[in-house]
Amino acid sequence: MASTAAPLTIGLLGAGSVGSQVARTLVEERELISSRVGAPVRLAGVAVRDVEAPRDWRIPGELLTTDAEALVDQVDVVVELLGGLEPAASLIERALRRGAGVVTGNKALLATRGAELAAIAAEADVPLHYEAAVGGAIPILRPIQESLSGDRITKVMGIVNGTTNYILDQMDTTGAAFDDALHEAQRLGYAEADPTADVEGHDAAAKAAILGTLGFHAPFTIDDVHCEGITQVTSSDIEAAAASGYVIKLLAIAERFDGEGAVLRVHPTLLPRTHPLASVRGAFNAVFVVAENAGELMFYGQGAGGLPTSSAVLGDLVSAARSVRTAGAPAELSATDTTMTALPITKATTRYYVDLEVADREGVIAEIARVFADHHVSIEAMRQPGSVSADGEVDTDQDSGAIVQIVTHQAREKALADTVETLKEKEVVRAVSSVLRVEIDQQS
Amino acid sequence: MASTAAPLTIGLLGAGSVGSQVARTLVEERELISSRVGAPVRLAGVAVRDVEAPRDWRIPGELLTTDAEALVDQVDVVVELLGGLEPAASLIERALRRGAGVVTGNKALLATRGAELAAIAAEADVPLHYEAAVGGAIPILRPIQESLSGDRITKVMGIVNGTTNYILDQMDTTGAAFDDALHEAQRLGYAEADPTADVEGHDAAAKAAILGTLGFHAPFTIDDVHCEGITQVTSSDIEAAAASGYVIKLLAIAERFDGEGAVLRVHPTLLPRTHPLASVRGAFNAVFVVAENAGELMFYGQGAGGLPTSSAVLGDLVSAARSVRTAGAPAELSATDTTMTALPITKATTRYYVDLEVADREGVIAEIARVFADHHVSIEAMRQPGSVSADGEVDTDQDSGAIVQIVTHQAREKALADTVETLKEKEVVRAVSSVLRVEIDQQS
């Protein structure tokens, strides 16, 4: 992958919750981002309205400026995180026309003037990326545009607004009324002081327009979207839906009707609790895609928040920087972290599930627990479901051996393996029936 | 997006279940693929061992050849679907060195000589794509390589082998023994006559090496993967796991240990039934990714099969063709299907949930059902959960009105809306308490 040594400059417009995290990563992880681009990158400046305003991450004073145009005119890639139509649109157009790559997360702008900006980018032959505009950290726009570019998408259906999903989830799980759930969301920072754009469905409608445009390769705008919010959803609606096995979600739906066109709609929707989207809880987002060849696909992850969303912005930034500087070919299977080595399984940390047949006598449990303790492996759960006769069949007659099932906490594979070896040597242990590894969800 | 008029030629190596579908799409959907590439494409030939062999789709005789090298030497993009190390490796290298883009789904080759081939592609500055190598139709490698290129992945954990997932799922749901579940899988075509590569975990191990290589930007091979298959998993293991709230899945895991390296492993794993991967059933695949900024992400879809997998191959083909012919910039928000128009919501087909308060008298249900029938809207379910007093509170005292809840089958939104309007005019209908749309999983 060809690359030059001169640093590639980045201009950041806006330093809100997402912008602050993008700035932090570009400063603290400059080496990482440079290695991913294949050329050194440098954050040249951050344009803000007020240089004194408090931020999630303290941006070095020398990087801050109030002159966005001057910044746009001097960098290789512009990252627009101002939101709203203006001055965002003018600054993006200015950047594209002078040949700078642009990364934006501005869904309102894309759902209004996206086709126009894309045409300007195509004419200037520079990248315009906006993965962060839909689904926060979830890679969804690039897969739709590129991975599925050889297929025909028939339907896209997504939970793309975390605020409304949190509110509906609260109403469903706690029986709360809409107003109470909304206030709770505001208290936790999931909803803004003026929640209109979220609860009336406008935010989801902008995303529906973008998903429909990319999914069906036709330029739709937010005006093409039929939009109903969740303010009319009552707790009795949710109760009645639950009674019939449904959950109510605010969905952004883009559906193709062959030979006719597409319908784009946002509205509260009943989903069977068995549907993959039904179990998407709280502030998480998920997008369900149906394509003629691929069939059903689902993409799931964190739909909002400065840190998660910055991941999507930085991924776009790396892509844009690569195509500004190189042929745009990703490094693929060629290594860039040459220090990374493969470790033996003994170095892994995991949990074990151990199923033992032991002599059914006093003190056995203590003796077994001691073996784990000696190897510094802590036990999460220990069960004695029944007992076994000599032929290994479970029975309830206590004059035969007992079964003991143990699940450990995280420990090094080596310690776990050594524990099992010691158990096998114990006279009270008749057999180690099975040893299996356990993975627990990161969040639990 | 710049493009020339001369057709871009495609050479297909192999015409098995995936290759046949790729050939079919390139012939039957030539216009679609060409519009996605931004230049006309033409399938120049299909290299096979036996031109007479029966295939899922009858490839025109004039396209078939047994001379793979001659085909490779005359096309712009080579699609390798032969599988195995040779002659696949030599043919891919030959294509790359003469400047042709290459698309392959050959996980065994990539997990053995991937870094070497990627280096040749980078040196020749031509694309080498292989989305189909992991997760079938699921876009997972491109998101890891590109969407997450500005983040640091810490763990990748996937159900990447449909055969073993089907077998374990059968054992879990029907209590079947391993051998019986395997034979059922073979009968249904989910498992091959010689199931070794699947049940011993070799297929998953190759995918673990590819996921680890892309996720951690370091060149791992299948030899770096600790591999245990599912042949030792017994129905009593699965019973015991279930009793403790776990399900057993064969997972391909790549985990980073900062400052040390990475552990790549494939083995039967206990997962809490609440884990997002636990509900991935049958032949479906899913990959769970954890990154420092993005947090938890999950990608879900069909992991095997000729048709779904061809979607991933064709997506790579479009990308490779774009970068051979253009700057590689995707069309993004600029339209290519200019005929596609936005339709009003009345054109949508959906289902309705209607909650009515009606007079509690004889014949009322029949009268309401008649209204739906008159508008050609068929009723899927009708419930009468209780009755309501004048203040709308549910009570059980039958001298007040009754509640009727109806869920319809799919119908045009217009017919559904008209039905509701007519219901409102009915004297027996006291109130239409709520009208909500319903979406059902495509598969149900």
UniProtKB/TrEMBL annotation, chains A, B:
Its EC number is 1.1.1.3. It holds the Pfam family Homoserine_dh. Pathway: Amino-acid biosynthesis; L-threonine biosynthesis; L-threonine from L-aspartate: step 3/5; Amino-acid biosynthesis; L-methionine biosynthesis via de novo pathway; L-homoserine from L-aspartate: step 3/3. Transmembrane segments: none annotated. It catalyses: L-homoserine + NAD(+) = L-aspartate 4-semialdehyde + NADH + H(+); L-homoserine + NADP(+) = L-aspartate 4-semialdehyde + NADPH + H(+). InterPro entries: ACT-like_dom_sf (IPR045865), ACT_dom (IPR002912), Asp/hSer_DH_NAD-bd (IPR005106), HDH (IPR016204), HDH_cat (IPR001342), HDH_CS (IPR019811), NAD(P)-bd_dom_sf (IPR036291). It is an enzyme of class 1 (oxidoreductase). Keywords: Amino-acid biosynthesis, Methionine biosynthesis, NADP, Oxidoreductase, Sodium, Threonine biosynthesis. The keyword Zinc does not apply. It comes from the Bacteria. Residues 353-437 form the ACT domain. Its cofactor is a metal cation. Belongs to the homoserine dehydrogenase family. Catalyzes the conversion of L-aspartate-beta-semialdehyde (L-Asa) to L-homoserine (L-Hse), the third step in the biosynthesis of threonine and methionine from aspartate. NCBIfam families: PRK06349.1 (NF004976). This is Homoserine dehydrogenase. It comes from Nesterenkonia halobia.
